[in-house]
Amino acid sequence: MDWAALGDETIDLLRRYLMIDTTNPPGNEIAGTRFLAEVLAREGIASETIEAAPGRASLQARLAGDGSLGGIVLHHHIDVVYADRRYWTVDPFGGVIAAGYLYGRGAIDMKSTGILHLAAMLALKRAGIPLKRDLVFLATADEEAGSEFGAQFIADHRRDWLAGTEYAISELGAIQPHHDLRAPLASIVISEKTGLPLTLTARSEPGHGSMPWPDTAPHRLIRALNRLLEAERPIRVLPEVQEYFSCLSALWPAAQSAGHDDLAQSLQDPAFRALFLGNRQFAAMVRTTFAVTMLQGSEKINVIPPEASAEIDCRMLAGDDPEEIAGWVRRVVDDEHVEVAISREPKVPNLSPPDTELYKAMADTLRRRVPGAVVAPMILVAFTDNWVFRRCGLHSYGFSPFILEDAELQRLHGNDERISLENLREGVRAYTEMLVDIAGA
Ligand SMILES: [Zn+2]
């Protein structure tokens, strides 16, 4: 294959895709599906577009294999988050290339991955490579706002788009270079934490602000929240999380790595525990978290309201049970005048095993991309569409052949989001080779 030409094409396709504003809300993903459909059609690949609501479009196209093995869904979300132009040094939808980088909202999250999928499919089609697995290209709406008009809509109404597939691959996971590590660390996402939205509502008599008493609704709520925040929810180290830390800590200097090979044991030591849980991301990987995010009380400063409430963004780990968590919160709050309710249908977390054929192919690809890289399974603390596709019965992973420094990752949802041209060139090659590996006949 002419990798240089495929690299140039990938850069050009991404540049054009980034220039389409698909900020969600409103999303207007249909502008993205029109672009993708046109590129596919030029290559003789038919696609289908559906609209879950006006403008909220998703697209599917399929390269057929011989059906001897299950297909692979290559999915990305078309929508991007808001870009505040005041803080960008370039136009976030200008398709600007400067000093070896392509800038734009979605350059990492995740139009770039979508274009790797697209370019790899075009390359396989042109080369006429026979496939034993179908490859399903899927571009979804609305991931950044909960997937209702995208992945969830497809799961509910167009399950036929996934027919005959066994695996799904999507965003995140990446290769972290080795400045502070003995070797580069590459991760493949196997599970995401999911949300259990809770509402705490305290009730009491209303009254005048000049004559408060201990048990007003806001006072009760504050004490209830205090008890919740001080309670220690037991730590749970999943085997996959242990494996991640075993891999990571083996790349650290000895002094830093001590204790990480047996977290469940080490976390009983108060000093280790304080240090480990002091890292917000690490802490979120070993426990259910409770973030108090919205508070509501009186509309007026001198009125004691009959009701005060708090919304809690609780995030569950694989294996957590929503009802058990709600019951635990009720016991900890321990006040019959404070109601604890699950405010929206919870997304029960799910997980894909790290010992599948696809996982092995992805791990090989990452080690080829960066020789010496250590590959570890990862549980993402944030949410992705993979949760939806796991519920459809697919083994779903977050995979990326990009080498990304922390500083680059911080641009994700931030300012001056960008991807290096080198990552795009090497990334499309790595992706295409992996698909030949796993799906080629
Ligand atoms: Zn994303």
Name the features.
alpha+beta; single chain; 15 helices; Alpha-Beta Plaits; 441 residues; four-stranded antiparallel beta sheet; 2 domains; binds zinc ion; six-stranded mixed beta sheet; 18 strands; Aminopeptidase
Protein described:
The structure is a single chain. This protein is α+β, with helices and mostly antiparallel strands and 441 residues long. It folds into 2 domains: 3-189 and 349-439, 3-Layer(aba) Sandwich (Aminopeptidase), CATH 3.40.630; 194-342, Alpha-Beta Plaits, CATH 3.30.70.360. The protein is 35% helix and 22% strand. It has helices at 3-18, 30-42, 111-127, 151-157, 217-230, 239-250, 254-257, 263-266, 270-277, 280-285, 322-333, 357-369, 386-391, 406-409, 421-439, and strands spanning 47-51, 57-63, 71-77, 97-98, 101-103, 135-140, 165-170, 175-176, 185-192, 194-203, 207-208, 289-296, 303-304, 307-316, 338-342, 374-380, 395-398, 418-420. Strands 1-2-6-3-7-17 form a 6-stranded mixed beta sheet. It has a 4-stranded antiparallel beta sheet with strand order 12-14-10-15, covered by helices on one side. It has a 3-stranded antiparallel beta sheet with strand order 4-5-18. A hairpin with an 8-residue loop joins strand 8 and strand 9 (185-192). Helix 1 (3-18) packs across helix 3, helix 3 crosses helix 15 and helix 12 (357-369) packs antiparallel against helix 15 (421-439). It is globular, with a radius of gyration of 24 Å. The mean pLDDT is 95. The site of zinc ion has 5 residues, from loops. Zinc ion (ZN) binds at residues 77, 109-110, 143, 171.
